[in-house]
């Protein structure tokens, strides 16, 4: 009985015993710290993954939003070139070319124009409308040929309205309103300005227009 306390005292006083005890305690601390670090690292990694995924989604959304804007400057330049090409090819260069072209088309179609009146619209920044109001006389086939030739002409003509005003024998009398455009610098100053929009030509009588701006 007296030997056991002495043995324990010897073991407690031995440096090797304290070395084992210190090593065990240090190992326990390392295990606890390693476990805590692992848990924190896992949580941080999960959060970082979520943040990265969120940023990737935002980046993809921004890419989709900006896709229509890519190359916009080139498309704008192309559109301007197309508009300029249309002006050069389809817009009459001068007022006299309108008169000449309409006259040539009427002769080729075999119709007769009367009470031709030209009215200048409000000047725009790029183009100014020139409205033509006239009586057309001829056979039905000739009138249709004349209208088709206007629509297909190299100059840009738009049929605004037309209406039958009379028929005698094989000849048809038609009132026709056509528009074309000129660049502002090519518009003559003598044409009257249009004060309002004309009514429905199909219901209007073929009354002769005023003398101003007429071509008999």
Describe the fold and architecture.
There is one protein chain. The chain has helices at residues 3-13, 15-66, 72-90, 95-109, 140-152; strands at residues 112-120, 128-138, 158-168, 171-182, 214-215. It folds into two domains: 3-66; 93-215, Alpha-Beta Plaits. Helix 4 packs antiparallel against helix 5. The chain is of the alpha+beta class and 216 residues long. The chain is rod-shaped and about 150 Å long. The relative contact order is 0.11. Strands 3-4-2-1-5 form a five-stranded antiparallel sheet. It has five helices and five strands.
Summarize the structure.
The chain has helices spanning 3-13, 15-66, 72-90, 95-109, 140-152; strands at 112-120, 128-138, 158-168, 171-182, 214-215. The chain is an alpha+beta fold.
Please write out the topology.
Blueprint: H1 3-13, H2 15-66, H3 72-90, H4 95-109, E1 112-120, E2 128-138, H5 140-152, E3 158-168, E4 171-182, E5 214-215
Antiparallel strand pairs: 1-2, 1-5, 2-4, 3-4
Helix pairs in contact: 4-5
């Amino acid at each position: 009985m007296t030997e056991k306390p002495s043995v324990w005292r010897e073991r407690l006083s031995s440096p090797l015993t304290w070395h084992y005890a210190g090593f065990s305690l240090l190992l326990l601390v390392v295990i606890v710290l390693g476990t805590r670090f692992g848990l924190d690292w896992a949580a941080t990694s999960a959060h970082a993954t979520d943040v990265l995924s969120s940023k990737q989604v935002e980046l993809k959304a921004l890419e989709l939003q900006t896709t229509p804007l890519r190359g916009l400057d080139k498309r704008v330049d192309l559109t301007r070139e197309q508009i300029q090409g249309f002006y050069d090819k389809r817009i009459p260069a001068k007022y006299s070319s309108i008169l000449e072209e309409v006259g040539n088309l009427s002769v080729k179609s075999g119709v007769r124009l009367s009470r031709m009146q030209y009215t200048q619209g409000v000047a725009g920044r790029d183009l100014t409308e020139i409205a033509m109001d006239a009586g057309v006389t001829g056979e039905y086939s000739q009138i249709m040929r004349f209208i088709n030739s206007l629509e297909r002409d190299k100059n840009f003509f738009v049929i605004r309205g037309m209406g039958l005003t009379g028929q005698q024998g094989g000849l048809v009398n038609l009132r026709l309103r056509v528009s074309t455009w000129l660049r502002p610098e090519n518009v003559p100053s003598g044409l009257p300005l249009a004060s309002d929009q004309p009514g429905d030509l199909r219901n209007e009588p073929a009354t002769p227009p005023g003398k101003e701006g007429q071509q008999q």
